[in-house]
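S2.1 Query sequence (T2SS protein K first SAM-like domain-containing protein)
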Amino acid sequence: MIAMCLYIEQKQDAEARNPDRKHGAVLLIVLGVILLASWMLVQIIGRVTEEVALRGVDDQNDAIRAAAFQSLEITIGVLAEIQLLDGGLYSPAQGWASPLGYAGFPMAAVSNELALGSGGESEIRGVDEMAEFAFPPGIEVDVEIRDESGRLPLNQTSGERWKLLFEEMEIQPADAATLADCLLDWIDRDNETRLNGAEAGVYQRRDPAYLPANAPIEDLLELRLVEGFDRLFFDEHGVPNDLFRTFRNCVSMMEAGKVNLNTVHPLVLEVLAEELDFEAQRVADFVRGVDLEAGTSDDLVLRPGLDDPDVPTDNDGEPLDFSATCRYLTVHIASRSAGTVFNLSARLDTETPSGEQIYPMTILDLQTKGSTL
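Output structure tokens follow.
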């Protein structure tokens, strides 16, 4: 990269004297970026394949665990390469829906939602029979990547937007207003009760009595303590119901900022359409491409500077905001063999390099779980 910068600086004066050489310099810069991205991915894959070759499979549990962590490293490498080449991560349609297939691993089945709530399996597969890389025999790895920016941030969403979401969930308007106000009262730091909300006075009358958190929610199950949610989102035993599960799929614990229209959950898309006055179906149809199927090769990407006559606009013909990137991603990896499964979940900040400079992005959280079928 340093050499590339020096090259650019040295060429500036020459380009000013000879404009005809400008296009050649631009081409060299582009090629340099491509080479850098490819080098970065090859380095990560090279380290992974070396570890696989050296480890052996005497201990199958260790091999399954290693395959999961190696898949995470490969996923990070793929994301970093696409981010560099495309100038940002906007949609799985850029190629990162199937990171193992992108990297050349054979039969890398990747279940991905495209953050559209489909929960379906992507048709994009790494099926190159001549692939250079492979995990030890008998080990299968599934990777699912979820974009958190396709959801509403749980601790940073307005009351009006919450009301719209609850109504889209077919909750009665009176209950929707209660849920929105009680949620905000539970999160905010003051003790002032909103019109339909609840503060300490309500919770202290319960048996046993308790106080509202007055702080951001860290676990969605905390909602069983919140007025309104306790009776609508849980049964009499405190077990989450279908409304809870629908809500969980619409929200993110991350501070994701703007909602990404490429990966937005269908209910959240309806909320935005109502709020910003555009047709939700037009956005959904555009990103799915000609076949109107999510997760296929003709999917389109909404991003800044998009030049397409069919690009979605609001009902006044004004362009929508496509600047949201997939900054926060949740990666779920399942590595399995002979009835044993190792699960790994990682949350990534794709726009902040790791402090140790090990990876080009930061792993914010990492959880593992092993099980036997």
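The chain is about 40% helix and 10% strand. Confidence is low (pLDDT under 50) at residues 1-28, 52-58, 107-131.
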